[in-house]
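From the methods appendix. Each design record in this collection lists the tokenized structure first, followed by the designed amino acid sequence. Records were kept in a plain field format so they could be parsed without special tools. The example shown here is representative of the layout used throughout.

RECORD:
FOLD TOKENS (193 positions):
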């Protein structure tokens, strides 16, 4: 009996909850104090009435049952929260992967089937544009230079053709004059003979 009493005292130190159906004591600790104070003394021992111990045992068992139910409820809540946390972590990892691939896609471009960064793409494109512009300027210079040479050649050709025409007409006139003189000489020789 004393042994049971010691066990109940030990439990009262760790479990303090309201006792259902008690009018005066409201916690297990108060219930133990009430039993000890209201028990009778028998030499060095205190005598506790059986119905009080039974009621205390029932209250302790009820409290333990409630605590177990609360623990089970909390464990299931913790389990569901851990599941939600795991799902949230997976979702966060997927979102981070999607964000990383989106940033990579945003910062990269495909040039002739090769993935390049925007900076490299801009450098290549401006280099191509610069080279094409340099070629254009070079061809414009060559065209103008060729055009100038062609105009000079055409001007010289026109000049030479003009000189040639002048020379030809003078040659033709001289030839005609020489033929007339020859004809006059032939005619004179015919008359003189």
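DESIGN:
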């Amino acid at each position: 009996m004393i042994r049971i009493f010691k066990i109940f005292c030990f439990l009262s130190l760790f479990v303090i909850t309201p006792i259902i159906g008690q009018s005066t004591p409201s916690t297990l600790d108060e219930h133990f104090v009430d039993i000890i104070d209201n028990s009778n003394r028998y030499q060095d021992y205190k005598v506790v009435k059986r119905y009080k111990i039974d009621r205390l045992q029932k209250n302790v068992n009820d409290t333990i049952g409630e605590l177990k139910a609360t623990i089970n409820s909390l464990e299931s809540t913790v389990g569901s929260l851990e599941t939600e946390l795991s799902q949230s972590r997976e979702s966060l990892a997927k979102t981070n992967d999607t964000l990383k691939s989106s940033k990579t896609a945003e910062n990269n471009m495909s040039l002739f089937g090769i993935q390049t960064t925007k900076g490299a793409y801009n450098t290549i494109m401006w280099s191509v544009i610069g080279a094409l512009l340099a070629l254009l300027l070079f061809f414009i210079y060559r065209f103008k230079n060729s055009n100038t040479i062609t105009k000079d050649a055409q001007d010289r050709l026109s000049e030479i053709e003009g000189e040639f025409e002048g020379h030809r007409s003078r040659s033709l006139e001289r030839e005609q004059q020489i033929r007339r003189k020859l004809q006059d000489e032939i005619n004179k020789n015919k008359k003189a003979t």
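APPENDIX NOTE: The mean pLDDT is 81.
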